[in-house]
Amino acid sequence: MSVFLDNAATSFPKPDAVYQAMDAAMRDVGVAPGRGGYRQSLAAARIVFEARSALARFFGVPDSSRLIFTHSATESINIAVFGLLKPGDHVVSTCVEHNALARPLHLAKKRGVDVTFVPSDSCGIVSERDIARAMRPDTRLVALAHCSNVTGAVQPIAEIAEVARIGGALFLVDAAQSAGFFPIDVESIGIDLLAAPGHKGLYGPPGTGILAVGAGINLEPLQVGGTGGSASTPEPPEQMPERLESGTINTPAIAGLKAGVEFIEATGLEVIRAKESVLVGQLLEGLHGMPGVRLYGPLQGERGAAISFNAEGHDPASLGFLLDSTYDISVRVGLHCAPDVHRSIGSYPEGTVRVSPGFFNSETDIDYFLRALREIIS
Ligand SMILES: Cc1ncc(COP(=O)(O)O)c(C=O)c1O
Prior knowledge:
Aspartate Aminotransferase, domain 2, 2 domains, about 40% helix, binds pyridoxal-5'-phosphate
């Protein structure tokens, strides 16, 4: 029996429709979208257009041209941070960010942007009151992850959006662990910049991501180059999405991402979340009762699907190795690209073992994992 429990890194397997859509896009279309007026190129452009529309609909983005395709949530965050911020700007973020946001902010700091990192409680949850206290007249951006990839902690983003709005700042949300798990409507929550990977909860292939850019926000492109149309000027075009999408786009991957989002819509986000929540509950209950096991993050209430733990007398790396080599169970160990979270919850520097079930796991998978862990640590 082989069990994949690292869906917080990348969801696996994907719905069948994702493999089929990618294969068809590669074989039947397989050319650059928007780079030619012939039918095959138009067919590629149609796939990208339909994918953009599907993702815009999914996240409540009113103008789909303001949703751009990227290679990852990391790239989306970099485009938002460096496309927006100037020396002298102030940013409010938190002490529990993934490096995908923490490192761009540290680099921006070196370039003259001031950043305040607001601490969390011991579960990894940040209070909107602390965010409000950190706001200043020169705060240009409030930026944080909706849900933690280490603890599963969920931040009160609607309340924080209101704090940012009152303070006259833009709100950037890293939805890497929440897109495809929690409903996200950028307009009703008040999110100005939404960064999400395509390859986790949206079931697209690795190497996909999106950034939704609110109306009236003009980001400087991180890279410039060919955009298909508007070729005569030395400057990149003003219009979206071309302004932020230079270079030939990965049509087969985007076809897969479109099929992933359509799978969520056809299945129902609430059905997906309900199933994953059952598996999370089963894991929390099983781990909670195990002697010597310490769980991190919220044990009840609203949480994401990433669960971190340590077992007394076993370092995370050897536990992960034994689970893989003896039981064929894939989990992630260590810092999970988020060292600041471990400093906040008390698991630095060794990190944790992280289990993250997905929609295609079963209760039998979780039973098997819990049995394997019990055998290893007993
Ligand atoms: C909270 C969080 N932010 C950002 C990322 C980066 O996502 P990507 O690999 O698509 O760049 C991850 C990936 O694990 C994540 O968990």
